[in-house]
Amino acid sequence: MENKKTFHLDREQEWEVMGGGISRKIMGYDETIMMVKVQFEEGGVGAPHEHYHAQTTYVVEGTFEMTIGDETKMLKGGDSFYIPPHVVHGVICREKGMLIDVFSPVREDFLDGSKVSYFGTEENA
C-alpha cells in the first residue's frame, strides 16, 4: 500500500459520511501511520470498540465524553488522549466538534472501502 500523495489539501477533499452525524477525511498515511480528521455533530457516537492499532487523538473543538478502558473524562478543544492497542474505547460528542486521530500502523480497513460499524447516535448506541 503506497500513498503517492505527499500533500493532502483539506479544500480538495470531500468528507466521507460515516452516518450518525459523523464524517471523516483521511489526511495522510503510509504503512506505519495514518492521520484522520473526524467531524462530529452533537450526539454523534463512536460506540465502544477496540483495534490492534495504537491511537492518539487531538481534540480540535467541541466537547467529547471519552471512555478508555474503565476511565471516562470530558474533553474539550486543546485536549488529547492516547489509546494503547486492544483497549476498548468509545466516545459521545456532547457539543459539535472535530478530532484529529493518528493511528499506527495504518488503518487498512479505512482504505479498502470497509464500512466502520461503530459510528452512530446516542439513541442507537
Short recap of the structure:
With 125 residues, this protein is mainly beta.
What does this structure look like?
Pfam families: Cupin_2. This is Cupin domain-containing protein. InterPro entries: Bacilysin_H2HPP_isomerase, Cupin_2, RmlC-like_jellyroll, RmlC_Cupin_sf. The structure is a single chain. The chain is 3% helix and 55% strand. By secondary structure, it is mainly beta. The protein has a domain of 87 residues: Sandwich (Jelly Rolls), CATH 2.60.120. Strands 1, 2, 3, 4, 5, 6, 7, 8 and 9 form a nine-stranded antiparallel sheet that branches. It is globular and about 40 Å long.
Count of helical segments? 1
- What is the alpha-carbon Rg in Å? 14 Å
Structural class by sheet pairing and helices: mainly beta
Span of the ends, CA to CA: 33 Å
User: What sequence of helices (H) and strands (E) makes up the elements?
Assistant: EEEEEEEEHE
* Total number of beta strands: 9
Low-confidence stretches: none
Major beta sheet, specifics? Answer: 9 strands, antiparallel
Question: Would you tell me the overall average pLDDT?
Answer: 90
Helix content: under 10%
The percent range for strand residues is over 45%
**CATH class category name of the domain at 22-108:** Mainly Beta
InterPro entries: Bacilysin_H2HPP_isomerase (IPR052535), Cupin_2 (IPR013096), RmlC-like_jellyroll (IPR014710), RmlC_Cupin_sf (IPR011051)
Pfam families: Cupin_2 (PF07883)
Protein name: Cupin domain-containing protein
Domain Cupin type-2: 38-97
